[in-house]
Amino acid sequence: MSTVLLRRSLAVAGLVGLAACSTTPSHTTARAGEAASTASGATVTLTPASGSLISGKLDIAPIAGGVRVSGEIGGLARGSTHAIHIHEKGDCSAADATSAGGHFNPAQQAHGRAGSGPHHGGDMDNIVADGNGVARVDVRALGVTLGGGATDIGGRAIVVHAAPDDYASQPAGNAGARVACGVIKLLP
Known about the structure:
- This is Superoxide dismutase [Cu-Zn].
- Residues 57-184 form the Superoxide dismutase copper/zinc binding domain.
- This protein is mainly beta.
- The protein has one domain: Immunoglobulin-like, CATH 2.60.40.200.
- The protein is built from 1 helix and 9 strands.
- The strands form 2 sheets. The protein has a 7-stranded antiparallel β-sheet, with no helix packed on it. The protein has a two-stranded antiparallel sheet with strand order 4-6.
- Strand 1 and strand 2 form a beta hairpin.
- The chain is globular and about 40 Å long.
- The model is unreliable at 1-34 (pLDDT under 50).
């Protein structure tokens, strides 16, 4: 077999192999019985609430079984720990952000920790500020989607609280005042 023909055969075999291995990425695949996200992502601009100076920018991306929330939040006390939740209403107009309502809870579960038994769809792990008062956020919300259905978080709000979530107290983890709020805006 000539060198040119051998190279062509190997190239075709490689392309066929790549096509056979190609699947939908796991970050957009829903588990059986769950709705799938139809939006590619979302953004949140957090603004101060309850007289705080806390603000930030977050990105939200679909993952298997939920969404990943990442970004930065500044204006926090150095080394402080704070709860962060998705709330049911996309309304941050009240000075104390109470207009955002309670935690988003489409499955009507008790408050808890995402990934550790029953929890609200809006429950996420606490965030921790560094020595400069900035929290680098990388948390997940499970059982929610972006872009449609009863579990859709598009148009709802993310709220940062003054205290950490204890993951047990009902209905909101004893997380304290709402110190920042932002509406989840789906990407076009």
